[in-house]
Fold this sequence. Notes:
By secondary structure, the protein is of the alpha+beta class. Helices cover 28% and strands 18% of the residues. It has three helices and four strands.
Amino acid sequence: xAGAGNAIRGSRVGAGPMGEAERGEAAPRQTVAYFCSNExxxxxxxAIEAQAPDSWDCPxxxxxxxxxxxxxxxxxxxxxxxxxLAYVKERRSDKEAADILDEALxxxxxxxxxxxxxx
Length: 119
Ligand SMILES: [Zn+2]
């Protein structure tokens, strides 16, 4: 039975955000703990040669987390977990949003008309 051992090796614990280290289970890692103002503790693994950033976004609540457990960064004024659409709606008036939508639809229609199969 060749390859029985490879099944385990094939399970990825986690590739980096850039898709690196997919087969890097042998690469040495450092784990760095970050703390957010909601008292979450987040442990992030970095390659040993990587410079760990001073802050990290807490994956549990979205607030910034820092290396200093006694002094986590304050929550930003904007709420976490706001979608990009929410930000857009906040920044633009409804009229502007409608104009942008019209523009996008017009562009879409003109592309379809010209026969370009963009999608
Ligand atoms: Zn948190």
